[in-house]
Write a structure and sequence with these properties.
It is built from 6 helices and 10 strands; from the N terminus they run βαβαβαβαβαββαβββ. The chain has 209 residues and is an alpha/beta fold. The strands form 2 sheets. The protein has an 8-stranded mixed β-sheet, covered by helices on one side. Strands 8-9 form a two-stranded antiparallel ribbon. It starts with a strand and ends with a strand. The structure holds glycinamide ribonucleotide.
């Protein structure tokens, strides 16, 4: 049984999708803990309601990024994690933290990386006149939003889209691809080859919404 630790900063809808899929599909894994950098993150309530351990490491209590990351890593290690899942965790992580969990940590980002790393991805895609937008699940490496890509989902950008409408369309796809990708990591069916990630049993890593 593998231990999954999920990091959130807010709503936690991706975390919910992963918790649900883990139970429904009977993964050989358990959600060992949900950890937030914000005590007000509403996702913590969902996790607690499912009997999942929760913890808060408030970044505002630390003078430096290094000190925050060291405490966060200590809390995570306490749950003996096999897989660490960033699910709307809105902190930039230090290289030391990322190295500690190298090959075991995934992130979901609301764009078709390498386009639009960083924030405000949906508005930037609309402003750029993109006809396609989407979401990416990738391994976390020290370079922000640039790790090896595990799965991507693409959706159309429609002429009347607002940021809210497009982000809802993309989020629906995140809820499909992120549980899938976490399951692959749990099952050990991902092979990293340089910057490319292959599913060893040939599952599709591209989703068209
Ligand atoms: C998701 O759209 C996720 O892709 C994004 O934050 C949202 C969290 O929603 N993450 C990032 O922008 C990370 N750079 P959720 O809390 O409901 O899962």
């Amino acid at each position: 049984m593998k231990n999954i630790v999920i990091l959130i900063s807010g709503r936690g809808s991706n975390m919910e999708a992963i918790v649900d899929a883990c139970g429904r599909e009977q993964w050989p894994a358990r959600i060992a803990a949900v950890v937030s950098n914000k005590a007000t993150a509403s996702g913590l309530q969902f996790a607690a309601s499912k009997g999942i351990a929760t913890a808060v490491v408030d970044h505002k209590q630390f003078d430096t990024r290094e000190a925050f990351d060291a405490e966060l890593a200590r809390i995570i290690e306490g749950f003996a994690p096999d897989v660490i899942v960033l699910a709307g965790f809105m902190r930039i992580l230090t290289e030391a933290f990322v190295q500690q969990f190298d090959g075991r940590m995934l992130n979901v980002h609301p764009s078709l990386l390498p386009a639009f790393p960083g924030l405000h991805t949906h508005q930037r895609a609309i402003d750029a006149g993109c006809k396609l937008a989407g979401a990416t699940v990738h391994f976390v490496t020290p370079a922000l939003d640039h790790g090896p890509i595990v799965a991507q989902a693409a959706v159309p950008v429609l002429p009347d889209d607002t940021e809210a409408v497009l982000s809802a369309r993309v989020l629906q796809q995140e809820h499909l691809i992120y549980p899938r990708a976490v399951r692959w990591l749990v099952e050990g069916t991902l092979k990293i080859d340089g910057h490319r990630v292959l599913h060893t049993e040939g599952d599709t890593q591209l989703f068209l919404g």
